């Protein structure tokens, strides 16, 4: 009876689906365990073998916990809103809802492309997901609740006294009783004070404007990352090296009126909460750095000849007498106001250039020094000396106040800036306020100095100086102690179509929330997904996108009268909106009235194990914690933190293949750049290595090609700009090769297949220089697995050839879960062979070989070693070593000729979390009904590993002659008696009496003389 993985896997996948084997109950006496994978985005590219890595690990844990008697919630769904789907819709003219559904469910799209479908691919791998709870963020029955959460944020404010979010009604009550003088809130800066009487005298519109300054989600003009090519705002984590991650388009900084969320209100709680959760230290440190807590002082500097002041946050107020200049962010609102006419052109040009650099790029670039003097001067709060005001792109508008009091003697970046512009207009000599030498570098330490040239701070150190200066600043009204955070409020608007519509309409330009009972506000149909001709977001193309406030319905724009019918918000929510609360929806996925029932939330509480990529450290993971804390404040979430334990799986890397196109390079002299001509010729990998170091080697390999290249070079060097000192060389353009064009074992390129591939139509007439054996060998390199690198391995292909259980085991076997590791299909055969060996313990060609005989001690020992190892490994998430132990165990049992039920039943259970299909079939073959999924996991028993016997080597004069198995509890005397009576000993001694007998119980026996 052979092992047919395709039949077995199809059989049990159908069984699980029909019987809803993995459906979790919200009412159970069992302890709960909630294991979750990060929300996948369903792209048309489908899964490659790197994607399932984390899912397999989480599935092993989920299955193991069911065996351990837990009520396990292991759900799955799709983060199905977002920019990629919208861009695909623009390119193909298909509605994003259609392409998204196709990407999930599979089929043939309008362009005739066969789409495998995420759901089909996931099911092929045998995950124990509770599909009855599936969610899709782009479904109206899901995003109605996202819209509701947005409304709750709008209807809340952050009370710093109680340190939590509260209903806006409590703030209104405070305004009605006492005004805003004693309100301790996270809010906009510079809110004008008002009394209770003032509040009551305000018009409704005035009151709404005031409340917008306190709400947790609010409208404000903010600096955003604007991508004109995509027609939308991008988050910082959607930008790479100054261009959009999607498409590589230019991104500039631009001011726009946007919805924002006061995540900054939760900065300290987000920071402190990291101490309560079991996450990797690297992820925690990423969040700590992103939150960026700093303790210092806020200092105000008046601007000469202007009714304005520059507020600066500094962590070193003790250095205030060392301020040599000030630097503003180029986007700072005062720049245009204070710049002198003489400096205006230079400042405007610099501001325009800076707008093309992302904040992340500016933060990372510590080498480039650039800036412009504004011509303006600020006034030192104590000495009254004029301080020149510069702008520089190393200062960010969103961090602190967007202004820096530059103390070059104590800060390396200020020091470099001052020295770079030394001697130019507006840059004074560096002031030294330390009793330390700064001739070569700034003195940035917080100890080991006394302050000098610092008036009343002279002689003080950092600690005493800081305390004293804050006291003096407060006395003159020029500053105060301050805790600052780098974390900024999150921009929540996107100029996209494919996202959650805001439940907002506008009356006289002021936002109004639509009542919960009228949700969802469903995305309208539009003809185009691009922004309108006048620059409005794509929803500006909708003709039915107005709110009838009497009939509570979306109606035609033609009916807008701003009396009863009003315009709706044209922006949509960002991609992270739906993913910031989805784990709670899984707890009660079909509730039409609430995002989740209180009892369900109380039962599941939060996620026990969360597995996903580390790239979400400062995006999704931070926003999720923020929303969870907010919902806890308002009484909707049961816990402060959403994810108890987080594991970041490493990446499975692809083994890319390259062909090498010849490139001729030359330059007139060493001071100029290289010019090049690409030659339509490909050099095999080994020859490429030799030619790269010395291109004259090419003459030995292919003289005709060498002569042709020499002629090309000579033609170039006949040009006027070249002389006898001109240089020439050859190099190579590596070009990714689709893996279908090579032999993955020998790395040989199938040249005809390569030329026939439409991807390489430009090279159909190319020359291929092969190795001496007549083969063209490609180069190989480990890279990120990506469709663009043609190194993707489809898990469906692996499942077809080797089976899903083999795929699952192999991905775990590759190495520790958290580490990156390269995929090598050639290595999978060993795992496939292991499963066949496992099968043969239970079956031969005629069927079952199971016997009910009592196993030997060695069989029990092998089994319980494995029980111990696998249990420890799963608990410690060390899955790769479990697979090794399975292989050892099966080999041992094979050698022991073990077909014993008492061993093979628990072995099937041990294998079940890793290779569930074969485990189910083995369990069924052992005579059991139903699924193996919830059968109790085997328990390790120490007694089977306790050695009762020892196989001693028996030596004569130090040479081992035979072995003897003896009980371990024998005394030396008893061992000696047994050994001397043994026929083999008598034969060795040949009638002689040994002079000495050395016995170490449990170790050695040696007879001497």
TrEMBL record:
Gene3D superfamilies named among the record's database cross-references: HUPs, Isoleucyl-tRNA Synthetase, Domain 1, Valyl/Leucyl/Isoleucyl-tRNA synthetase, editing domain
Chain location of the short sequence motif 'KMSKS' region per the record: 784-788
Keyword ATP-binding on entry: yes
UniProt xrefs under CDD domains: Anticodon_Ia_Leu_BEm (cd07958)
GO terms of molecular function: leucine-tRNA ligase activity
InterPro entries, sorted: aa-tRNA-synth_I_CS, aa-tRNA-synth_Ia, Leu-tRNA-ligase, Leu_tRNA-synth_edit, M/V/L/I-tRNA-synth_anticd-bd, Rossmann-like_a/b/a_fold, tRNAsynth_Ia_anticodon-bd, Val/Leu/Ile-tRNA-synth_edit
Main location: cytoplasm
PROSITE patterns associated with the record: AA_TRNA_LIGASE_I (PS00178)
Catalytic activity, reaction form: tRNA(Leu) + L-leucine + ATP = L-leucyl-tRNA(Leu) + AMP + diphosphate
Keyword Protein biosynthesis applies: yes
Identification of the protein by name: Leucine--tRNA ligase
Gene name for this UniProt entry: leuS
């Amino acid at each position: 009876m052979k092992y047919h993985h395709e039949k077995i896997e199809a059989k049990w996948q159908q069984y699980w689906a029909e019987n809803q084997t993995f459906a979790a109950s919200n009412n159970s006496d069992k302890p709960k365990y909630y294991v979750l994978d990060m929300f996948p985005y369903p792209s048309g590219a489908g899964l490659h073998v790197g994607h399932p890595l984390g899912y397999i690990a989480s599935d092993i844990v989920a299955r193991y916990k069911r065996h351990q008697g837990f009520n396990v919630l292991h759900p799955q769904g799709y983060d199905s809103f977002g920019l990629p789907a919208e861009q695909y819709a623009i390119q193909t003219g298909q509605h994003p809802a259609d392409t998204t559904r196709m990407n999930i469910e599979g089929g043939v799209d309008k362009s005739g492309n066969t789409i495998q479908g995420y759901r089909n691919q996931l099911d092929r791998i045998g995950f124990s997901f509770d599909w009855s709870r599936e969610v899709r963020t782009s479904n109206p029955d899901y995003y109605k609740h996202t819209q509701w959460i947005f409304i709750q944020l709008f209807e809340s404010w952050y009370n710093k006294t109680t340190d939590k979010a509260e209903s806006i009604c409590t703030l209104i009550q405070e305004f009605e009783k006492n005004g805003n003088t004693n309100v301790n809130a996270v809010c906009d800066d510079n809110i004008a004070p008002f009394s209770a009487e003032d509040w009551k005298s305000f018009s409704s519109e005035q009151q709404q404007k005031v409340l917008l300054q306190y709400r947790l989600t609010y409208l404000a003009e903010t600096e955003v990352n604007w991508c004109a090519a995509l027609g939308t705002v991008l988050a910082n984590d959607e930008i790479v090296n100054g261009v959009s991650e999607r498409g590589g388009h230019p991104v500039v900084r631009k001011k726009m009126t946007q919805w924002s969320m006061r995540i900054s209100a939760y900065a300290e709680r987000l920071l402190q909460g990291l101490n309560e959760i079991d996450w990797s230290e690297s992820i925690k440190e990423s969040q700590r750095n992103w939150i960026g807590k700093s303790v210092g002082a806020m200092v105000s500097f008046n601007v000469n000849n202007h009714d304005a002041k520059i507020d600066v946050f500094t962590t070193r107020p003790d250095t205030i007498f060392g301020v040599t200049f000030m630097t503003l962010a180029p986007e700072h609102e005062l720049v245009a106001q204070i710049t002198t006419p003489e400096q205006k052109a230079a400042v405007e040009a610099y501001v325009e250039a800076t707008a093309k650099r992302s904040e992340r790029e500016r933060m990372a670039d510590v080498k480039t020094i650039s800036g412009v003097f504004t011509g303006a001067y600020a006034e030192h709060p104590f000495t009254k000396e004029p301080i020149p005001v510069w702008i520089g792109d190393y200062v960010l508008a969103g961090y602190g106040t967007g202004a820096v009091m530059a103390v070059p003697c104590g800060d390396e970046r200020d020091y470099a800036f001052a020295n770079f512009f030394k001697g130019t207009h507006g840059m004074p000599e560096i002031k030294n306020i330390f009793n330390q030498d700064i001739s070569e570098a700034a003195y940035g330490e917080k100890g080991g100095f006394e302050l000098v040239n610092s008036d009343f701070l002279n002689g003080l150190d950092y600690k005493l100086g800081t305390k004293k200066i804050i006291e003096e600043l407060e006395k003159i009204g020029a500053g105060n102690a301050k805790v600052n955070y780098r974390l900024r409020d999150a921009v929540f608007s996107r100029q996209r179509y494919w996202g959650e519509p805001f439940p907002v309409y506008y009356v006289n330009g002021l936002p109004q929330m639509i009542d919960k009972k009228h949700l969802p506000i469903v995305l309208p149909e539009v003809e185009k997904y691009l922004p309108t001709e006048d620059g409005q977001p794509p929803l500006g193309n909708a003709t039915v996108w107005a709110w009838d406030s009497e009939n509570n319905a979306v109606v035609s724009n033609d009916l807008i009268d701003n009396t009863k019918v009003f315009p709706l918000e044209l922006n949509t929510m960002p991609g992270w909106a739906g993913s910031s609360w989805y784990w709670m929806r899984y707890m009660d996925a079909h509730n039409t009235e609430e995002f989740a029932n209180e009892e369900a939330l109380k039962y599941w509480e939060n996620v026990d194990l969360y597995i996903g990529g580390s790239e979400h450290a400062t995006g999704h993971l931070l926003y999720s914690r923020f929303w969870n804390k907010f919902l806890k404040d308002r009484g909707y979430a049961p816990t402060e933190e959403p994810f108890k334990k987080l594991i970041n799986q490493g990446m499975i890397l692809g083994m890319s293949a390259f062909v090498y196109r010849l490139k001729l390079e030359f330059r007139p002299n060493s001071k100029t750049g290289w010019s090049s001509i690409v030659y339509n010729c490909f050099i095999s990998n080994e020859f490429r290595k030799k030619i790269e170091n010395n291109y004259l080697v090419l003459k030995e390999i292919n003289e005709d090609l060498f002569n042709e290249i020499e002629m090309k070079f000579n033609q170039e060097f006949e040009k006027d700009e070249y002389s006898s000192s001109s240089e020439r060389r050859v190099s190579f353009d590596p070009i990714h090769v689709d893996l279908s064009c090579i032999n993955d074992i020998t790395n040989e390129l199938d040249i005809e297949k390569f030329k026939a591939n439409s991807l390489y139509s430009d090279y159909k007439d190319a020359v291929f220089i092969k190795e001496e054996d007549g083969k063209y060998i490609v180069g190989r390199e480990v890279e990120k697995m990506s469709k663009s690198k043609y190194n993707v391995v489809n898990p469906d292909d692996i499942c077809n050839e080797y089976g899903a259980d083999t795929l699952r085991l192999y991905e775990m076997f590759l190495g520790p879960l958290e580490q990156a590791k390269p995929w090598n299909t050639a290595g999978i055969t060993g795992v496939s062979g292991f499963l066949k060996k496992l099968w043969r313990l239970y079956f031969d060609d005629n069927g079952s070989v199971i016997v009910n005989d009592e196993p030997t001690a060695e069989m029990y020992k092998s089994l319980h070693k494995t029980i111990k190892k696998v249990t420890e490994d799963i608990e410690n998430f060390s899955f790769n070593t479990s697979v090794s132990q399975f292989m050892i165990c099966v080999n041992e049992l094979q050698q022991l000729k073990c077909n014993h039920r008492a061993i093979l039943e628990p072995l099937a259970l041990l294998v079940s979390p890793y290779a569930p299909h074969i485990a189910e079939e083995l369990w069924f073959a052992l005579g059991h009904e139903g699924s193996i999924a919830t059968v109790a996991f085997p328990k390790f028993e120490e007694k089977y590993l306790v050695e009762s016997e020892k196989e001693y080597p028996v030596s004569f004069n130090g040479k081992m002659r035979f072995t003897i198995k003896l009980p371990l509890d024998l005394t030396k005397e008893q061992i000696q008696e047994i050994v001397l009576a043994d026929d083999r000993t008598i034969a060795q001694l040949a009638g002689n009496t040994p002079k000495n007998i050395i016995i170490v119980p449990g170790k050695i026996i040696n007879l001497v003389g």
